[in-house]
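Thread: "does anyone have the structure for this chain?"

Original post by V.I.:
We have the sequence but no experimental structure in hand. Need at least a predicted one for the grant figures.
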Amino acid sequence: MTEKILTFLVPWITAIVSRIGYPGVALLMAIESACIPLPSEIIMPFAGYLVYTGRFSLFWVATAGAIGCNLGSAVAYWIGAYGGRPLVEKYGSYILLDHRDLDRTTRFFQRFGTIAVLLARLLPVVRTFIALPAGIARMSQVRFHIYTFVGSWPWCFVLAYAGMKLGNAWDTDPRLKHILHRSDAAILLLLGAAFVWFLWTHWNRRNRQSEA
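Reply from O.Q.:
Generated one for you, tokens below.
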């Protein structure tokens, strides 16, 4: 399945970056940060490959990627801020969510929002979705965007640097693209375990409430 998805995405991603340049990097990273799982592990290494060819600057590739992360995160943040809470309050019971979960999310971001956003931007998969709960919690937008940029820039830089160092091998050895996705699989496994735990605890809580 992963191989088929990559076969479809890689030509599309590389074509956009090749034709549009830095704005293409920013656009694709914006999509990735707007809760759409477009793999930055393909976007940024290919941009790094173009650094290797002399077309791009490593600094500006990383900066364009981080700017894109902020733009996409702004969309996800506002969706969470203006649509997240009303939707959960109205339909949350169907997915085992209630106002207490919203309150916990708000308290978490009030207390740990800065470090949560910073660390999330350095993790595959998680970085794609962190803006939505930050918006639901109405985290300070100034802090949110500062730490989104601060966390995203090193991520973009490291991936682009890897693509630059791989040079021509990035485009000639397909195994390298799959190696970059192994961390995604580990994170998805952890998220899956967390989701199962969430369902189990919330289902038990609902049963206790119905019996009371």
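V.I.: this helps a lot. The chain has one domain: 2-211.
O.Q.: and Residues 2-211 form one domain.
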